[in-house]
Design brief:
single chain, alpha/beta, 8-stranded mixed sheet, 6-stranded mixed sheet, 24% strand
């Protein structure tokens, strides 16, 4: 494809050595990925400018630099100055890959807690209904039967465009995406427009980035005001005050009419009837009530199922067929996942890393415990420190024993993070401090007595520990299996 076919004249502020017939073989905003014939987008990042990497891009064969600053005549290649590099980059990325989004139904789901589970459930439900689907989120990226590791919850448009092309080529109709607040704030998915947008809830998280809850909320709101098609629909859970606020503001500001919004936990509800051990639910739809037995574990999943039901209705499916498809659902990897049983005690792994998520996970396990409920967790380094004592407070108020350890300390001292968590402990429950996560998990498992329940929280599906800028292989699920094997061998 030629440069002239990729960029419109009106998007260009200035140019140097411009050749509209220049053949373009690829595009990237990462100088490490440049190959001969590529466009390099020298965009500003959150920490530094891509312009410092122009020499590296040229050395690797870039033939065109797109930038927001004026062209540098000392740089001997085609240069194009644009006003908004993110907008131009998004348009070129989709055009380069044949605008695959035009043939796909795009569903974006946002929220603090529940968006990963709800997105995963929707992908599974669509496939249970006989439709091929793609999923991009925290757990992984999946296109049909091909699965890729996810580096970010929401990939940038440059990473996303070839995956959307792959989905189109595989005759996939539905694409389910988790859309994070970071991605929305940075306009990482521009210029995609979603056919359906879902909101789960909003609670404290990512305040190291967003500064305050209002900024966090406004970033989430952009999915509905900036990235929803004119005829698109919204599914909004009124579980949190922010969900109620979002619904009212979208009405009052005339972004959406009432008939284009489906309300969850008011119009649609899911009530827990029993746990056997999967949740037995009574679901109230828009046309009737239904009872369904699922393979899901964790009381908080009832809220996610209600949102899921609303999303499926928003896609036009019949309530009866949705109920049938719900029966086959199972918990996503690392979401209140039962990873083992030792000495008559259950061991669960969960991704909970916010105060609300930890509270929901612990409360979901209370009906199982006949002995003690043990919470093992830490907090990420270089992230919102204000939530650390809040998580300590939650753990010590609900569980019977707390084990504090490391969880992706990044560039912070793990023991300092643990001291911050300790400030929230109420002193009424025993606790242990074991900074080494591997040792902490082994200790907690060896402490188990019949009837106990252990929750290992924070990492869930993750398979690494991030320490001083480096990721080391580490999986809570694998550690549990290794420890149980060792204990079994020692018992023989």
């Amino acid at each position: 494809m030629t440069l002239g076919e990729l960029i419109r004249e009106e998007e260009i502020l200035d140019r140097f050595n411009y050749d509209e017939k220049l053949e373009i073989t690829g595009i990237t905003d990462d100088s490490r990925k440049v190959e001969p014939g590529f466009i390099f987008f020298a965009r500003r990042g959150t920490k530094e400018s891509g312009e410092r990497y122009i020499p590296e891009a040229l050395n690797k064969g870039a033939v065109c630099i797109i930038r927001e600053s004026p062209p540098d005549s000392s740089v001997n290649c085609t240069q194009i100055q644009v006003k908004n590099i993110k907008e131009v980059m998004g348009k070129i990325a989709l055009k380069f890959y044949g605008n695959p989004e035009r043939d796909l139904v795009l569903i974006g789901i946002t929220g603090t807690n529940g968006k990963s589970s709800t997105s995963f459930f929707l992908k599974e439900l669509l496939e249970n209904l006989g439709f091929k689907s793609a999923y991009f989120g925290t757990l992984f990226y999946e296109v049909g039967d091909k699965r890729y590791s996810s580096k970010e919850t929401t990939p940038s448009i440059i990473e996303l465009a070839p995956l959307l092309k792959e989905a189109k080529e595989r005759a996939i109709k539905y694409v389910v995406m988790e859309v994070s607040s970071h991605a929305l704030d940075q306009d990482r998915v521009f210029p995609l427009m979603y056919d359906l947008a879902g909101f789960t809830n909003l609670s404290r998280d990512h305040l190291d980035y967003h500064r305050d809850m209002e900024s966090y909320y406004q970033a989430k709101k952009k999915l509905f005001t900036n990235y929803l098609k004119l005829d698109g629909k919204a599914v909004i859970s009124l579980e949190s005050v922010y969900g109620q606020r979002l619904y009212q503001e979208l009405l009052n500001e005339r972004f959406l009419e009432p008939e284009r919004m489906i309300r969850v936990n008011e119009g649609i509800k899911a009530e827990i009837l029993g746990r056997s051990p999967g949740l037995k639910l009574r679901i109230r739809g828009l046309k009737g009530e239904y009872e369904v037995e699922t393979g899901l574990f964790g009381d908080y999943q009832a809220l996610n199922v209600a949102t899921l039901f609303g999303l499926a209705l928003g896609l036009g499916f019949d309530e009866g067929e949705i109920i049938s498809a719900l029966k086959k659902l199972k918990n996503p990897p690392g979401r209140l996942e039962l990873c083992g049983i030792y000495n008559g005690a259950f061991i669960f792994v969960d991704y909970a890393h916010t105060p609300q998520a930890l509270e929901s996970a612990l409360k979901s396990l209370l009906p199982l415990k006949k002995g003690r409920l043990i919470a093992l967790f830490g907090c990420g380094g270089n992230r919102d420190p204000g939530k650390r004592p809040l998580m300590g407070k939650v753990a010590s108020s609900i569980s019977d024993l707390v084990v504090l350890t490391s969880d992706n300390p990044r560039f912070e001292d793990p023991e300092k993070i643990i001291e911050d968590i300790k400030l929230g402990l109420n002193g009424s429950k025993p606790f242990y401090i074991i900074p080494d996560r591997r040792e902490a998990i082994a200790f907690a498992i060896e402490e188990l007595k019949p009837g106990d329940v252990l929750l290992i929280a924070g990492k869930g599906h993750e398979d690494y520990q991030e320490i001083m800028g480096k990721r080391y292989p580490f999986s809570d699920r694998e550690e549990v299996k290794k420890i149980l094997r060792r204990l079994s061998e020692n018992a023989c």
